[in-house]
Design brief:
7-stranded mixed beta sheet, two-stranded antiparallel ribbon, 9 strands, binds S-adenosylmethionine, Rossmann fold, alpha/beta, single chain, about 260 residues
Length: about 260
């Protein structure tokens, strides 16, 4: 992928209402999905190794906390949105969770996930489906848990995702989101900034031969709503008992809301 693939259409005269963020840039809403798709098509093969390198393995701890909080039980079904290469779905199943539908808008990410599932012997109770989290092709009130990990910031209409998650949840069901958030420890900020904007793109270039995608990933973290704003979006979508937990000084956060 080259830097040019991030360029908005020339001559675009979109109004602010028709625009959305793509990292630090403003692009027309209809341009974001193909741009995000290009990022994940490009990084799919190196996604898992890059996650370990970029987070120094810490994403594994965050995901473990997230899955434990999701509360896997054999009788509960899970819809994993933006499931990528499968960490959340696999954690759920290994933790004793019930029927799981692992979804993502990118077939390239799901295909890496399917190969990983096979190699880990995770074949029963797991299905795969290409799904746009903004328009979930499931009936109302049909699943017990909906998860999205590091996916919401890549979606164009984040409120649509949260509303859709609530719609497909059974009463008593829970939606949980794990996402990068706002650092709350002042001393951490300069180190985190240097890591995000200098080290990450350089490592993306070195390991995945793709500086631009990792520059986007760093930028998309900074344009994502902070902890309180996201909690308010959950409430606005009709979720109840909304709460959140910051992780690693606010680098990431887990948000949770129930459909009552
Ligand atoms: C950073 S990865 C996260 C993957 C996985 N959940 C994890 O935690 O490792 C973000 C994923 O969001 C997916 N994605 C982006 N926009 C999406 C959308 N509108 N609907 C569903 N998935 C989407 C991408 O294809 C990508 O696989």
């Amino acid at each position: 992928m080259t830097d040019n693939s991030f360029a908005p259409s020339p001559g675009s005269s979109a109004s602010a209402a028709e625009e959305t963020d793509f990292g630090f840039r403003s692009v027309r809403k209809e341009e974001k999905k193909p741009l995000v798709r290009a990022v994940f098509d490009s990084v799919a093969g190196k996604y898992d190794v890059m996650n370990d390198v970029m987070s120094l393995g810490i994403h594994r701890i965050w995901k473990r906390i997230f899955v434990t909080e999701l509360g896997p039980q054999p009788g509960l079904s899970l819809l994993d949105l933006a499931g990528g290469t499968g960490d959340i779905s696999f954690g759920w199943l290994k933790g004793g969770g019930g029927p799981t539908v692992m979804t993502d808008i990118n077939a390239s990410m799901l295909s890496v996930g399917r190969d990983r599932a096979l190699s880990q012997g995770l074949v029963s109770d797991l299905s795969f489906c290409v799904v746009d989290a903004e328009a979930i092709p499931l009936k109302d009130m049909s699943v017990d848990r909906v998860s999205i990990a590091f996916g919401l910031r890549n979606c164009t209409d984040k409120m649509a995702v949260i509303r859709e998650a609530r719609r497909v949840l059974r009463p008593g069901g829970r939606f949980m989101c794990l996402e990068f958030s706002r650092v709350q420890v002042a001393a951490l900020s300069p180190i985190y900034d240097a890591w995000s904007f200098k080290v990450l793109p350089a490592m993306g270039n070195l390991i995945a031969k793709d500086r631009a995608s990792y520059q986007y990933l760093a930028e998309s973290i900074r344009t994502f709503p902070d902890q309180e704003t996201l909690a308010e979006m959950f409430r606005e979508a009709g979720l109840s008992h909304v709460r959140y937990q910051s992780l690693s000084g606010g680098i990431a956060a887990i948000h949770s809301g129930w459909r009552l």
